Amino acid sequence: MTTQQLHEQILQKKSFLCVGLDPDLAKIPPHLLETEDPIFEFNKAIIDATHDLTVGYKPNTAFFEAYGIKGWMSLQKTINYINENYPDIFTIADAKRGDIGNTSSMYAKAFFEDLNFDSVTVAPYMGKDSVEPFLAFENKHTIMLALTSNEGAFDFQTLNTNGTELYKQVLETSKTWKNSDNLMYVVGATKAEYFADIRKIVPDSFLLVPGIGAQGGSLSEVCKYGMNDKIGLLVNSARAIIYASKGTDFAEKAREEALSVQKEMAEIIRLKFQV
Amino acid sequence: MTTQQLHEQILQKKSFLCVGLDPDLAKIPPHLLETEDPIFEFNKAIIDATHDLTVGYKPNTAFFEAYGIKGWMSLQKTINYINENYPDIFTIADAKRGDIGNTSSMYAKAFFEDLNFDSVTVAPYMGKDSVEPFLAFENKHTIMLALTSNEGAFDFQTLNTNGTELYKQVLETSKTWKNSDNLMYVVGATKAEYFADIRKIVPDSFLLVPGIGAQGGSLSEVCKYGMNDKIGLLVNSARAIIYASKGTDFAEKAREEALSVQKEMAEIIRLKFQV
């Protein structure tokens, strides 16, 4: 998928919502546990109930790997289900990978080829040759961590390096890499005021924004500082939507939550772009 | 496994070699491709041929994930094979994981519980709450990236932060985390002179050292600067050992390569400890 196609989908759905799929057997509705593949059944129901309100799904690989081979099978079924039934949806493997060149090539192959995700999240610590193998894939997107939404973000990401914070250095440096057009960045919603500075460095890139909802970030604040003239945001919400109810009505309640966020997004788009 | 048990195994085998298992279908001996699970058959043969010369195996998860479910099954069979047949061996899931707290907990569950590895590699970029969930597991070890062996290491890891390089700050900060005794660190062999400074910060920790062999690092230099009075090193070699031959003699040739490294290690231990 191209960023242009993603932009068009955003305008059409009046939504830049991405739903995080973090399926935890301890949290999903108990009645699903009797099915053969509770994780897939859970994801499928959430996807069917929200696909017209969201432009992206972001399965978090940890929540599948924790269940071993069975979990990896659920991940494959989930991505296949999205690709077959809702091919316009932008898919993100939230995997936070990154390793020396030949290893990163194998991760890229895993997520872009074997599983056929549109994008994958990567960590920047190992630098250029750990990220460029991902960037080599045409019409695939590499979403690099810049400033994350957790407390630990302040351990290293905001350290002063040569007069600027490390995460800004990461953004600057990454722009010099080969095929850097295929980069997007993770920027946490818990620090909305940081978006203004970030937009000076990467005005045109899509930013994947976790931290809305359960983690406490404000949508309007993020949009105020982070939106560009092509929207340029994918706002992720996981727990607040997928765990809206533990009952048999979980998918319906997830839809209600997603609808509430989508309506807020539609209003923000209407006000900003007068459409 | 405790670090004490690992130390005892090192003295007994006169080896601190770790063999990296990076099974690439394009590189393993062609005759194995006719078997039902070429990746597992390859690993099994390498393990059987080298287990008395090495104290650790380090499967690189990328090389399994690239083959999807089949690859994940090969990974499970490989770790099970080691744990059942050579329970003294220290096992490392080279996964470079790290995410917000509840996600890191799921990764820890995946590698420490589901797959039953002794250790896993993690990336530090997201800070304390992305690493502490791994550290909570007793007698399991979390091997955090400090200074890696690739070119991109110089993009961010060596940036000056508050008067010191980022990787030194990472080492310093990590010592304050809960259960930091369960930390080990990745330090690339391509920069042997850096080990002296690193040992001032983490004198007692085990260091996992990639970059010997195919990546060009020198074993004697690394030992000169990096060894402590409990050895404190796990030196990894992957390609130089596992791809020593593409013929039916690949396991035999792998053993020859491993034996050559082990002999060099035995001599270093003898000279340093007069044993």
UniProtKB/TrEMBL annotation, chains A, B:
One of its GO terms (molecular function) is orotidine-5'-phosphate decarboxylase activity. Pathway: Pyrimidine metabolism; UMP biosynthesis via de novo pathway; UMP from orotate: step 2/2. Keywords: Decarboxylase, Lyase, Pyrimidine biosynthesis. InterPro entries: Aldolase_TIM, OMPdecase_type-2, OMPdeCOase_dom, RibuloseP-bd_barrel. Residues 16-254 form the Orotidine 5'-phosphate decarboxylase domain. It catalyses: orotidine 5'-phosphate + H(+) = UMP + CO2. SMART domains: OMPdecase. Belongs to the OMP decarboxylase family. Type 2 subfamily. This is Orotidine 5'-phosphate decarboxylase. The gene is pyrF.
